[in-house]
Amino acid sequence: MIMGFFHGTEGTGPYFEGWYFKHQSPGGQALALIPAFHIDGEGRHTASLQVISKDRAWWLEYPASQLQVSRRPFQVRIGQSCFGEEGISLQIQRDGLSLRGALRYGPLTALRSDIMGPFRFFAGMQCAHGVISMGHSLSGALELNGEPLEFSGGIGYIETDRGRSFPQRYLWTQCVWEGAERGSLILAAATIPLPVGGFTGCICSVLYGGREYRLATYRRAKIERWSSSGAAIRQGKYRLEAELLSERRQALRAPAEGRMERTIHESLQAEVRYRFWRGRELLFQRTDPNASFEYSS
Fold first, then answer.
1. How far is residue 154 from each of residues 28, 139, 204, measured CA to CA in Å?
2. pLDDT digit string (tens) for 226-248?
3. Residue 258, SS3?
């Protein structure tokens, strides 16, 4: 199941592939890391690691020779740091960033089917999305520029993207939480160009109450609204709202034709209010200060 989340560094560009590892502590700390590789239109291979905290983001570029990715088991090694399905080990000392330590992951929560649905077969898609884990337990600690980050008892999330470029206009939000009513969700909406024409589509998975609710364009979901302040989508009797209440954005690099030249902005710990209905029944309402949120146009 995890093996499908690496598609290979061989071939010609433009192409990129990256993995998003998010970690939340019980005390409200958070850290995300994005190892990636990229191939530009001239066939040049490079690798990168982006590190995102609540207050800052770092971009680290590596030669392709310092990147190793394996399928069995799934593992990304970049420089002296390693990322995999069982955890991460970090040893970074460069460009104003000191980040050391290790985290172990509990069992990953994979979706039963690819979140892209039949879209994964569209060869002309700019970008394909994948969810590796909707939530898993954490143990261990890191040290970021001298600050201890204790993640034991926390929760993690992992996803992946690959393709040529991020969509020109898109919205993405993610949230995972523990407690008596534990849950997890990811929602993305984007304008999708195709070789002929294009469309605006969405993908969404909500894990709540022991089951998955899948809302997606390929299941006839409709986007009622989406903007820099949130989104609302409806599919039959189900409706999800995501409303951005506050954010603290950090600048990140994103792919454009295989080159990491585009600047986007992500809030690693945005405050977002989610409401999910089944008909007139409100299944849950959650305002979470540890949600991730991105909007770009």
1. 9, 7, 23
2. 999 999 999 999 999 999 999 99
3. coil
